């Protein structure tokens, strides 16, 4: 269906009150899943981030890099191992995680944003003790649990009109080591520390579905008091539970809204933030 000039103008008019509402506010976006491995989706996400930045919204990107880590482990002949959905991280794996996340993935994202006309800068959780962590449990190896967040390096970047791109490797405070951190958890912790307006988790599903087999059963809005019932009733289960727990933690920490969005939908961020019709699940 072709869009007329009037249609395009109407889209901009619809976006205007949202741009005004979020101007100067901070939005933390956890970037991962299919949106990272598909060139088309990666370009769409980066375009969304650049546009939000250009209209005066402070965007912070927190990223993982599971597929790239798997690829590098395969090159060195090391098999990926997961415990309760978390990557088991021994010392050799931690070296690779750090190299991939803080190096190739982070710098490629920064370069992409810079090529598209924004000012982006890469940070890791170890820079200026941004993420300070202790070992979560010996069953997971060098997987960390964030104990404290120092938002100063991110705030400095935002104050100087940069888009901070943060990799989820933390500085150990219980020993001279670094820790692998779940990206959803890191994004939620950082959103709270930054007093962000919104936390956005990009996933590979539409959001929270009332019927997991029916993508048309999307629950658009979840209120905090409903969360426990949705889990008890089995509507929220499996890998969606920790994602929702991150959203709950962010709301309890002062973030106004948390969103679970389908990263497989091009420009899902813009549709959710700057239009009357959302495409994911919003928690408030």
Main sheet record: 11 strands, mixed
Strand content: 15-25%
Number of helices: 10
Q: How would you sum up the global shape?
A: globular
Instruction: Enumerate the spans where pLDDT stays under 50 for 5 or more consecutive residues.
Output: none
Into which percent range does the helicity of residues fall? 40-55%
Structural class: alpha/beta
Mean pLDDT: 92
Order of helices and strands: HEHHEHEEHEEEHEEHEEHHEHE
As a whole number of angstroms, the C-alpha radius of gyration is 19 Å
How many E-type strands?
13
> How far apart lie the N and C ends?
35 Å
Task: Describe, in plain words, how this protein is organized in 3D.
The chain is α/β, with parallel strands linked by helices and 284 residues long. The protein is 42% helix and 22% strand. The protein is built from 10 helices and 13 strands. Strands 1, 2, 5, 6, 7, 8, 9, 10, 11, 12 and 13 form an 11-stranded mixed β-sheet that branches. It has a two-stranded antiparallel ribbon with strand order 3-4. Strand 8 and strand 9 form a beta hairpin. The protein is globular. The chain starts with a helix and ends with a strand. The model has no long low-confidence stretch (mean pLDDT 92).
């Amino acid at each position: 269906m072709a869009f007329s000039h009037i249609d395009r103008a109407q889209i901009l008019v619809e976006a205007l009150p949202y741009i005004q509402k979020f101007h100067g506010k901070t939005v933390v976006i956890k970037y991962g899943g299919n949106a990272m491995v598909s060139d088309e989706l990666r370009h769409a996400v980066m375009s969304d981030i650049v546009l939000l930045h250009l209209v005066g919204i402070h965007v912070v990107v927190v990223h993982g890099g599971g597929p790239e880590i798997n690829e590098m482990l395969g090159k060195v002949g090391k098999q990926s191992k997961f415990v309760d959905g978390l990557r088991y991280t021994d010392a050799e794996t931690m070296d690779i995680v750090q190299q991939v996340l803080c190096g190739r993935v982070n710098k490629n994202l920064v370069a992409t944003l810079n090529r598209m006309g924004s000012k982006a800068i890469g940070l890791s959780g170890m820079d200026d003790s941004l993420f300070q962590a202790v070992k979560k449990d010996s069953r997971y190896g060098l997987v960390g649990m964030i104990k404290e967040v120092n938002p100063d390096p991110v705030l400095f970047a935002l104050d100087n009109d940069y888009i901070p791109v943060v990799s989820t490797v933390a500085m150990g405070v219980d020993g001279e080591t670094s820790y692998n951190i779940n990206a959803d958890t890191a994004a939620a912790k950082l959103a709270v520390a930054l007093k962000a307006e919104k936390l956005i988790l990009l996933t590979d599903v539409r959001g929270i579905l009332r019927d997991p087999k029916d993508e048309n059963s999307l629950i658009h809005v979840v209120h905090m008091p409903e969360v426990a019932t949705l889990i008890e009733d089995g509507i929220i289960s499996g890998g969606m539970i920790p994602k929702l727990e991150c959203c709950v933690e962010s709301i309890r920490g002062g973030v106004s809204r948390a969103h679970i969005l389908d990263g497989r939908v091009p420009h899902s961020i813009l549709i959710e933030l700057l239009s009357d019709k959302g495409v994911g699940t919003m928690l408030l």
